[in-house]
Amino acid sequence: MSQSCLNCLKYTMCAVNFLCWLFGTIVLGFGVYLMMYSKFSSLIPTVPSMNLASGLVIIGTIVTCISFLGFLGALKENRCLLLSFFILLFILMMAELSVACLLLLHEKKIDTFIENDLNKSLKQALTNKNETNDWDKIQELFQCCGVYNATDWGDNVPHSCCSISDCKNKPPFWEKGCYTKLKDNFENNLLTIGAIVIVMCIVEVLAMCFSMTLFCHISQSGLGYK
To answer: Given a cut of 70, is residue 111 above it in pLDDT?
Structure first.
């Protein structure tokens, strides 16, 4: 392989990994911001740490660390960093595929688990104001009411259930419950989610191929671990 092609590959890897690092940093920063200033918590009491803020922090940290290794390894032509980048990217891809397979295999169990926890969360919201605030945000965002419908709230239907600006806690309320709305949204976007996962896996495979190409070139040139 000519030196010009290798240089092109090297700087392409640097540019792509730098953009990924920048994206990861933004996601991480936004996640930390939500943790510090947002009072929104998880609606799944069994897993209280499962919320938007913690998810963004985890994703941002992973993307930032891996892309930094790829950028620095390509820029410095360092075999150790390139190999670490390859291994971590391979582990990440296997984890993504494993999660996707588990979601497909245990779809009904996960669906039941989320439904039960939403019911549990709503019962807590009837006696806990903080929980009610979380439900208000979800109901306003997804234009839904309760788990199944407005009757889940009994006589204490929150204003966020109103489908018009000033219904004064009386009908009309949003017809669909949040569980139904979330399930419908997931099913409607299932093809898009699958396409995103496939594209991510393709990008990760290409990144691994590029890193191995540089790794082999460095090994053949006898540069060793710099």
So the answer is: yes
